[in-house]
Design goal:
17% of the residues lie in helices and 41% in strands. It has helices at 6-11, 58-66, 76-84, 96-100, and strands spanning 15-16, 18-23, 31-36, 39-43, 48-53, 68-73, 105-106, 113-114, 120-132, 135-146, 154-157, 160-163. The protein is globular. The chain starts with 5 loop residues before the first helix and ends with a strand. The mean pLDDT is 93. It holds the Pfam family Flavin_Reduct.
Length: 167
């Protein structure tokens, strides 16, 4: 066996690549989104997912205010926007939807901006949150799920994206 630095070992875990959105889809300045990788299912019944977000993020403020958020799994079609706009700019400074050329649609069951260019879209109601070191772990109940486009999702591994293909 070979010893690993703890942070090096944590970088060896593959993660889903997603954009989390929250706020009013029609109101510039009251809508936002961010790229996340620390996302996981936490319960079958009820269907719950959890996402870790730094409490300084604008999207976190919107989730707390609107008590809802949407998760958009990233595919090749969204990859550049996930890194270049949603993953590197603050929603306090720019409207990420306008900057990316995306006109969000309204959620079917929640109030949140929906990015229709995603292969998997999960609409979630805020359930709870827990402080976990330098992040907050937000738990949401999945109340609706659908496909926006027919593409394979991407994962995030060691600083790069990789396409998930069916076996």
């Amino acid at each position: 066996m070979k010893d690993l630095d703890i942070f090096e070992a944590l970088d060896l875990i593959p993660y889903p690549l997603a954009i989390v959105t929250a706020g009013d889809p029609k109101a510039v300045g009251k809508r936002g989104g961010m790229t996340v990788a620390w996302l996981t299912r936490v319960s079958w019944n009820p269907p719950l997912i959890g996402v870790a977000i730094a409490p300084t993020r604008f999207t976190y403020e919107l989730i707390r205010e609107y008590k809802a958020f949407a998760v958009h799994i990233v595919s090749k079609k969204l990859e550049n926007l996930a890194y270049g706009v949603f993953g590197s700019r603050s929603g306090r400074d720019i409207d990420k939807f306008s900057a990316s050329g995306i006109e969000p649609i309204e959620g079917r069951k929640i109030k949140a901006p929906i990015i229709p260019l995603s292969p998997v879209i999960l609409e979630c109601e805020y359930v709870d949150e827990f402080r976990t070191g330098d992040h907050v772990f937000i738990v949401g109940r999945v109340v609706d799920a659908y496909k926006g486009i027919d593409e394979n999702p991407l994962t995030f591994y060691r600083g790069a994206s990789a396409e998930v293909k069916s076996i």
